[in-house]
């Protein structure tokens, strides 16, 4: 992605040039610099959220202010993850201490 050196708007690729959609500025594309960027489809381990069946919740904090939808138990382990952008509240992931049911709560 390139930004216009004159007005700062995002530029679009047109052949061998980047063209600004706002002011019309044109810049020659640097193919070598573009090939330095790598796109991947997989997440790294620190981006993954513990939601799989075997995730270890035991030993994490306990919430006593929740109710399991499956068995009605009022005690669950929980972990907190920032799943949205930094200006959004974090998400709490729960695992019922009685039946093992998992759910999430958005604040």
What does this structure look like?
The chain is mainly β and 107 residues long. The chain folds into two domains: 1-39, no CATH class; 50-106, N-terminal domain of TfIIb (Single Sheet), CATH 2.20.25.10. It has one helix and seven strands. It has one helix spanning 31-35, and strands spanning 11-14, 17-20, 26-28, 62-63, 76-81, 91-96, 102-106. It has a four-stranded antiparallel beta sheet, with no helix packed on it. Strand 2 (17-20) and strand 3 (26-28) form a beta hairpin. It is elongated. It starts with 10 loop residues before the first strand and ends with a strand.
Question: What's the helix and strand layout?
Answer:
Elements: E1 11-14, E2 17-20, E3 26-28, H1 31-35, E4 62-63, E5 76-81, E6 91-96, E7 102-106
Antiparallel strand pairs: 1-2, 2-3, 4-5, 5-6, 6-7
Structure, briefly:
By secondary structure, this protein is mainly β. Helix content is 5%, strand content 28%. It has a four-stranded antiparallel beta sheet with strand order 4-5-6-7, with no helix packed on it. Strands 1-2-3 form a three-stranded antiparallel beta sheet, with no helix packed on it.
